[in-house]
Amino acid sequence: MKGFYHRNSFAAVRIPQPVWGPAALALTALSTIMSVVGQVGQQNAQAQAASANAAQARYQAQVAAQSQELMQRQAADATQRGQVAEENRRRLTAQQIGRQQAAFAAQGTDLEGSPTDIVGDTAAAGEMEALTLRSQAARQAYEHHIAGVGYGNSGILLSNRALNSAHQPNYLGVGASLLSSASTLAEKWRNFQSSSGP
Q: What is the reported pLDDT for 14?
């Protein structure tokens, strides 16, 4: 048994060194294995989280694209409804002018002077109302269009987020840790061999 001698004034006493070799090596090896398993598990967990984030971003991008399409349809619908309302208003104005002219003619009034001013005022008021309806429809269509552009931009950002969420596991770091631990284990083995030799 290897050890060292401690000399005092009475006698030389041999104090044995504890031999931890096999147990220490086994503990170091077990620690190395657990460390590598932990790092691999951590990398896998990060990859799963990144995959879930990417899937969520892709789903949200699809929802944004559908919302953008809906806004485009609503913008087209607002424009079409505005055109119909404008045409209907002009038709009503023409009918109103026709009724006024018929009433003046039935009264035997000449369609010059004041009656012409009245008919002109009716035409102007009707045209103003038709143009107001067109303007309101254009404003609604524009608001839908702007909302659609916002959804489109949001979809692009979400698609980019999905692409950037892809996690590349860093197994190189795990390998480096394994090599470092193996080096430590080899050093302990050498020390054990040299201390247990004859």
A: 53
78 lies in some domain: yes
* Residue 180 counted as domain residue: yes
**8 Å CB contact between 171 and 83:** no
Whole domain around residue 138: which residue ranges?
19-196
Q: What is the pTM of this model?
A: 0.57
Cβ neighbourhood burial of 193 (10 Å; 0-12, 13-18, 19+): exposed
Residue 197 gets which letter from DSSP? Answer: -
DSSP string for 78-137: HHHHHHHHHHHHHHHHHHHHHHHHHHHHHTT--SSSHHHHHHHHHHHHHHHHHHHHHHHH
Residue among 175, 155, 171 nearest 163 (CA):
155
- Nearest C-alpha neighbor of 89 from the set 143, 140, 141, 135: 135
Q: Assign 116 a pLDDT band (cuts: 50, 70, 90).
A: confident
DSSP state of 9: S
Based on the structure, what is the number of domains in the chain?
1
